[in-house]
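Q: I'm writing up a methods section and want to include an example of the input and output format. Could you take the sequence below and give the corresponding predicted structure tokens, formatted cleanly so I can copy it straight into the document?
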Amino acid sequence: MFFSKTCEYAIRAVIFIAQKSEGGRKVGIKEVAAGIDSPEHFIAKILQDLSKRELIQSSKGPNGGFYVDSSARSNTLADIVRAIDGEKIFKGCGLGLKSCSETKPCPLHNDFKEIRNKMQLTLQSATIGEFNENLNLGLSYIKER
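A: Here is the clean output for your methods example:
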């Protein structure tokens, strides 16, 4: 909807990895791909990028894989969105116009501005750790059963 497909997969992957790695376990690419219904080759590139940006951690070797450490659990969904899709969702025009501004608004400008602000507030206040807790409590899910 608002996010690119890459960003959707990134958000789901980080939440999935956070949940699975809570007890110190590391998760492999195949497990992440299956857990979030993503193509393996696509999620591999996303996870590599997220790891470089320190939104998730990785370790190599026979017991390696991806995990989310305690400091990364305080990252927000907005951090992931910015890393993957940039600031466009928070600052861009609802019609995709480059010249849209406060002084020269498009027909959607004022309504879309409210939506953008609400979305930014929502994503900025939602941490990976909170999502993990909700998954553990069965209050939310990231894959249909």
